[in-house]
Amino acid sequence: MLDFAGDLMARGREVAAARIHGVDENMVRPHLHDYFEIYFLEAGSRYHGTDDDLYRTEPSELIIFPPGVEHFSYSDDGVPFRRVVLYFRPDAVLYPHVLEAVSSEVSVVRPGGANLRAVENVVEELLTAQDVLGDGAQDEMKLLITQLLLKIMRAERRDARLARRAGRIADVIHHLHEHYAEPIDLTTLAETFFSSPFYLSREFKKHTGSTIIGYLNGLRVGRAERLLQETDRRIGQISAEVGFANASHFNRVFRARTGMSPSQCRARERVDDVGPSR
């Protein structure tokens, strides 16, 4: 899925917004960023996962991810959805008490009545300001995102984590996130969830658009990228830590998914940290 708002943030925006609608547009590979994300679901239903929990959101609900929280999302097969995603850096929030209120944990909120209409109006203003003013909209968008957070603070908090018990695939995904560093084979996984390997594979592909092994490899590679960037551990050690049986298989899967070798990934990160020479 093309992340238009993410591209704007990468180009230096403090606040960015995008509306999208589709069917089977899934982002099942976990990702994280150094800014907040508000995911406002306008139609359909959506699953959102973190390391610890899986959430299900319904229309007119918002889920808020603080910076640094790894997450992913997907919909049930064939279910259309429409959403607005809002990204903003902590410095874009104008009031410290508002920033503190949304910084501690992932939360799902359900505005109601007049407050829902107010939330929808602010979201529309954010999208319009960005479309009309482009880079010149940032000051206005900071004010609007702060207003939106104030309205969210008045909304009902909902414990959407019960979604983990809503279906087998949600449970499988949570299991993979908890045990990705351990040996996992399809037969044992199917037995754990009282299914056949064929049926579980078909059901997983139907719901997420990914094979189980493909999803698991994506999860392991994502973890490896973080370790390569954030630690000085040897590549062979990282390979074992994220669940690969041997370094050669790790290198092959890593290159296939990222387009570079683990050593190239580490070298690129260090060049980015140093920045251009003057």
TrEMBL record:
Keywords: DNA-binding, Transcription, Transcription regulation. It holds the Pfam family AraC_binding. It comes from the Bacteria. Residues 170-268 form the HTH araC/xylS-type domain. InterPro entries: AraC-bd, Homeodomain-like_sf, HTH-like, HTH_AraC, HTH_AraC-typ_CS, RmlC-like_jellyroll, Tscrpt_reg_AraC-type_HTH. The keyword Thylakoid does not apply. This is Helix-turn-helix domain-containing protein. It comes from Saccharopolyspora griseoalba.
